[in-house]
């Protein structure tokens, strides 16, 4: 079949084909770019696989340009160099001799060249790839049928699709399936078990039955994969339209307790005296999907990538109840309780981030804060909403208050519609109160109207705990509404406190 799509007519693809013709090589665009072409999804990076054509002997190519040890895989580099030269000044080439690959960056596009391989395709494999292969052998060792399709770029068959495993059919059937026996594909690179689940989640596809069974069978092999590569897949799952689907597949295949035991521990319902609690795992996943749906309500802030904010708010949703199993208790009167689960959960966040190799920076701090504060707005509803309580929440959440309120909205998963409506209404009231107080008191990102140096100068003090005490007293007085958030009032208040202390 000849592919008929304007994207395949891109000048850069023709140029690659022409250079390959000139060198006597065959080349094909392959993998994600081809898949996304048929899915009508945007995709910038282009993977090109290169094969020596029948007309050219391996010896001729290797004699001229690449050493015997590098073998045929050096032809990827050969073509990349020719393409970079043709593209001229705007092109930057990076050569990875050990892997037999080269990357050309041009106008924001990445072109990746590699010689066809007989062995498993692994971009960051530690072992140099010296085993050369035919196109078909290369396609055999790729991860999924939908990622193994290739389109010829040589003039004689430009645009011809080579799809030996019916990747097109699997795209139509919405199936993720390995080209070979899945036990072989997954043992070549166990990360592919995560990739299968990631693609299924991102594309809204199902796992083929045998592929699913093989993941369940090989799950322990995930232990040899670095945490960083796993985290990359988890983040991609998290940024999908319905991230819950990925976590459910991780659970069903048995990977979940191996990579994230704390999340697996949320599963299940305990019943005592006829009273059960909700299954925290499924509740959490509902909250996560709710947050994913609410993402458009997030606004980007200066210096902040919107995708980043979405990602970490989603992690906050996933972790908001992570402390529940550890805080669960049975109270004969109240039934099941989860006291301080937000606090316990917040304390777990840094450890979980460290183990999953997620960043231990302000992103983690943001998630920790969200988990810690997620019960506060609901408590504001249940108690009568005092100005002081709202001010304190504004003070602690700072600029992240809007994200926190989104998380709280997402946390309403009751099936009782009246209840849901009542909660949303009450959160609106809390929001309104915040706006009123904000206009008056400017508490968000609170800066004390009198700082420690000034307090020391006022009373000729050396640095000591009293300075801290006075500062904290001013902050509390402002948050409790005893004095306005203004300098003069603060100075007068400190003076009064000082007088009292002198008596
Ligand atoms: N590949 C593979 N096994 C892996 C990784 C990659 O077989 N463990 C192959 C697949 O053919 C894949 C191609 O290499 O399509 C490119 O890999 P990559 O850039 O990681 O993924 P894409 O498929 O391009 O998808 P995305 O960019 O969405 O991650």
Please tag this protein with its features.
503 residues; Beta Polymerase, domain 2; Hydrophobic Seed Protein; 4 domains; 7-stranded mixed beta sheet; elongated; binds cytidine-5'-triphosphate
CATH architecture of the largest domain: 2-Layer Sandwich
Strand ordering within the main sheet: 3-4-5-2-1-6-7
Average pLDDT number: 89
CATH-assigned fold name of the largest domain:
Beta Polymerase, domain 2
Explain what this protein looks like in three dimensions:
The protein is α+β, with helices and mostly antiparallel strands and 503 residues long. It is elongated, with a radius of gyration of 30 Å. It has helices at residues 11-23, 32-39, 58-64, 75-87, 135-140, 167-173, 182-188, 191-203, 209-218, 227-238, 244-253, 256-259, 261-264, 280-294, 306-319, 324-327, 341-356, 362-373, 376-382, 387-397, 401-410, 417-441, 452-459, 465-479, 487-502; strands at residues 25-30, 46-52, 92-96, 101-106, 109-115, 150-152, 161-162, 175-176, 206-207, 271-272, 275-276, 328-331, 335-338. It has 4 domains: 6-173, Beta Polymerase, domain 2 (2-Layer Sandwich), CATH 3.30.460; 174-259, Hydrophobic Seed Protein (Orthogonal Bundle), CATH 1.10.110; 282-446; 452-502, no CATH class. The site of cytidine-5'-triphosphate (CTP) has 14 residues, from helix 8.
């Amino acid at each position: 079949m000849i592919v008929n799509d304007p994207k395949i007519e891109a000048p850069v693809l023709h140029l690659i084909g022409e250079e390959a013709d000139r060198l006597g090589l065959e080349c094909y665009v392959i993998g994600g770019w081809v898949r996304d072409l048929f899915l009508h999804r945007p995709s910038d990076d282009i993977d090109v696989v290169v094969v020596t054509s029948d007309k050219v002997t391996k010896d001729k190519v290797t004699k001229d340009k690449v050493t015997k040890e590098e073998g045929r895989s050096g032809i990827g580099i050969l073509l990349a160099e020719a393409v970079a030269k043709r593209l001229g000044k705007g092109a930057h080439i990076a050569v990875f001799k050990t892997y037999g690959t080269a990357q050309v960056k041009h106008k924001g596009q990445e072109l990746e060249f590699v010689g066809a391989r007989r062995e498993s395709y692994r971009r960051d494999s530690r072992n140099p790839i010296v085993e050369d292969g035919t196109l078909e052998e290369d396609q055999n060792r790729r991860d999924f049928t939908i990622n193994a399709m290739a389109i010829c770029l040589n003039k004689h068959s430009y645009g011809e699709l080579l799809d030996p495993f019916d990747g097109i059919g699997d795209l139509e059937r919405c199936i993720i399936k390995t080209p070979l026996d899945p036990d072989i594909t997954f043992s070549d690179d166990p990360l592919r078990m995560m990739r299968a689940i990631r693609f299924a989640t991102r594309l809204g596809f199902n796992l083929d039955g045998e592929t699913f069974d093989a993941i369940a069978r090989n799950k322990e092999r995930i232990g040899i994969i670095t945490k960083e590569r796993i985290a990359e897949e988890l983040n991609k799952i998290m940024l999908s339209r319905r991230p819950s689907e990925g976590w459910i597949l991780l659970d069903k295949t048995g990977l979940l307790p191996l990579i994230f035991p704390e999340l697996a521990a949320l599963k299940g319902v305990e019943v005592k005296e006829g009273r059960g609690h909700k299954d925290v795992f499924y509740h959490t996943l509902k909250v996560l999907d709710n947050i994913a749906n609410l993402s458009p309500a997030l606004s980007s802030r200066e210096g902040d990538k919107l995708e980043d904010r979405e990602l970490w708010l989603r992690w906050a949703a996933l972790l908001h109840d992570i402390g529940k199993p550890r805080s669960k208790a049975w109270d004969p009167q109240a039934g099941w309780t989860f006291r301080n689960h937000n606090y316990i959960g917040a304390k777990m966040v840094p450890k979980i981030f460290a183990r999953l190799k997620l960043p231990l920076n302000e992103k983690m701090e943001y998630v920790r804060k969200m988990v810690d504060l997620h019960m506060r707005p609901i408590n504001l509803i249940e108690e009568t909403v005092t100005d002081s309580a709202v001010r304190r929440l504004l003070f602690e959440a700072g600029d992240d208050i809007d994200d926190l309120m989104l998380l709280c909205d997402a946390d309403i998963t009751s099936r009782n519609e009246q209840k849901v409506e009542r909660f949303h209404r009450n959160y609106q009231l809390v929001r309104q109160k915040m706006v009123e107080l904000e206009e008056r008191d400017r508490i968000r990102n609170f800066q004390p109207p009198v700082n420690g140096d000034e307090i020391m100068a006022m009373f000729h003090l050396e640095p000591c705990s009293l300075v801290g005490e006075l500062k904290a007293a001013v902050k509390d007085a402002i948050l409790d509404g005893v004095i306005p958030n203004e300098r003069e009032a603060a100075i007068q208040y400190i003076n009064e406190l000082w007088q009292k202390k002198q008596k």
